[in-house]
Amino acid sequence: MKKNAFIILCFCLTSCFTNWGEERTVDPVFSRYEPVTLERSVFENAIEIQDKTAVTESSKIYIISDYIFVNDKRTGFHIFDNTNPESPIKKKFLKIPGATDIAIRNNILYINQATDLVVLTLNFTDFSMTLNKRIKNVFPELRSPDGEFFSEDNKVVVNWLKK
């Protein structure tokens, strides 16, 4: 009985050692997503008010007094005049690459722009803005949907695109 158990055990363990003497290689794991990056200097100067554009991938919505801010995921915010709730009017687009969330108090916008917290003052009359402050690296780097991350000096990941 012991001899049969030993033979069965030997056959079971041989599958664990099929490549004896050969160099073992491990297949690297590749992300199905490609990072969209900006140089740090470009990233910090990319905030601007633009004419209205089409919404491509809407995300969070923020309402303050007569205005609606609709996040276009990781590209910026569409600003709507909601004076007439029956028919909101698209006014401007606040381009801010990497942005996903906003909070507003007294015309001061607090926005997460990828890894940074940005504080802007917005004039709702002429839609001019002033950058008050940028606090770098408050938020963690943006990971891909499959969990991968990209790290390179002086570059910031603002989005991930499927390959």
Structure overview:
It is a single chain. The protein has 163 residues and is mainly β. It is built from two helices and eleven strands, in the order αβαββββββββββ. It has helices at 2-14, 40-44, and strands spanning 33-39, 48-51, 58-64, 67-72, 76-81, 89-95, 99-105, 108-113, 116-123, 128-135, 155-162. The strands form three sheets. A five-stranded antiparallel sheet has the order 2-6-5-4-3, with no helix packed on it. A four-stranded antiparallel sheet has the order 7-8-9-10, with no helix packed on it. The chain has a two-stranded antiparallel sheet with strand order 1-11. Strand 8 (108-113) and strand 9 form a beta hairpin. The longest helix has 13 residues, at 2-14. The N and C termini lie far apart (57 Å). Residues 24-28 have low confidence and may be disordered.
Write the layout of secondary structure elements.
Elements: H1 2-14, E1 33-39, H2 40-44, E2 48-51, E3 58-64, E4 67-72, E5 76-81, E6 89-95, E7 99-105, E8 108-113, E9 116-123, E10 128-135, E11 155-162
Antiparallel strand pairs: 1-11, 2-6, 3-4, 4-5, 5-6, 7-8, 8-9, 9-10
List its salient traits.
163 residues; mainly beta; five-stranded antiparallel β-sheet; four-stranded antiparallel β-sheet; 2 helices; 11 strands; 11% helix; elongated
